[in-house]
Specification:
The complex is a heterodimer of chains A (113) and B (109). Chain A has 113 residues and is mostly beta strands. Chain A has no helices and 11 strands. In chain A, the strands form 2 sheets. In chain A, strands 2, 4, 5, 6, 9, 10 and 11 form a 7-stranded mixed sheet that branches. A 4-stranded antiparallel sheet of chain A has the order 1-3-8-7, with no helix packed on it. Chain B has 109 residues and is mainly beta. In chain B, strands 2, 4, 5, 9, 10 and 11 form a 6-stranded mixed sheet that branches. Classes of the chains: A mainly beta (113), B mainly beta (109).
Chain lengths: 113, 109
């Protein structure tokens, strides 16, 4: 158990819909990262937050957005969903800004029908 | 971005030492190299991190040559439970976290 929690575990929805994925970092960790992992593209970095502020942006689509709240939990919002958005979405946290190891959550499996 | 390249797959036998190499171009002076292990449907798990020369912990060693254009993860005496995908991560200039394509290691009995 990494100490990072993600909800929900599974999510099934339809194209065009909007969903919110939630992540709670390890106690004391200020950085939260979001990743997308699909079968054909491996692990893709989406975005990083540090203590409520956006710190780095990766291959995140404009239809996707994220935020980190004062209690340090984070949410990833995915809108206008397409079939290709079906993937595992991982959240990770770390204590410092990227120099220390990241602790990954169990992931949310999103299926878009 | 620091792009990384790894072999797609490797096979080994139980008890052997396995070396997985990652190539990383455009790596910046203050960037670190980190390796993660991932089992199916689980989040990646940290193995080891280094900047240069050699780092060793209880599960692996990491070798980074002077030019830092590559790194090698060394797993001593692998077992069946080491069958997993291994990712090399380089922190690029723009602080974007680029995972390699991953190496599927299969340990055979």
């Amino acid at each position: 158990d990494s100490g990072v929690t993600q909800t929900p575990k599974h999510l099934i929805t339809a194209t065009g819909q909007r969903v919110t994925l939630r992540c709670s970092p390890r106690s004391g960790d200020l950085s939260v990262y979001w990743y997308q992992q699909s079968l054909d593209q491996g692990l893709q970095f989406l975005i990083q937050y540090y203590n409520g502020e956006e710190r780095a942006k990766g291959n995140i689509l404009e239809r996707f957005s994220a935020q980190q709240f004062p209690d340090l939990h984070s949410e990833l919002n995915l809108s206008s969903l397409e079939l290709g958005d079906s993937a595992l979405y991982f959240c990770a946290s770390s204590g410092l800004e990227g120099r220390n190891e990241q602790f990954f959550g169990p992931g949310t499996r999103l299926t878009v029908l | 971005l620091a792009k990384t390249t790894q072999p797609i797959s490797m096979d080994s036998y139980e008890g052997q030492e396995v070396n997985i190499t990652c190539s990383h171009n455009n790596i910046a002076t203050n960037d670190y190299i980190t390796w993660y292990q991932q089992f199916p449907s689980q989040g990646p798990r940290f193995i080891i991190q280094g900047y240069k020369t050699k780092v060793t912990n209880e599960v692996a060693s990491l070798f980074i040559p002077a030019d830092r254009k590559s790194s090698t993860l060394s797993l001593p005496r692998v077992s069946l439970s080491d069958t997993a995908v291994y990712y090399c991560l380089a922190e690029g200039n723009a602080r974007q976290l680029t995972f390699g394509s991953g190496t599927q290691l299969t340990v055979l009995p």
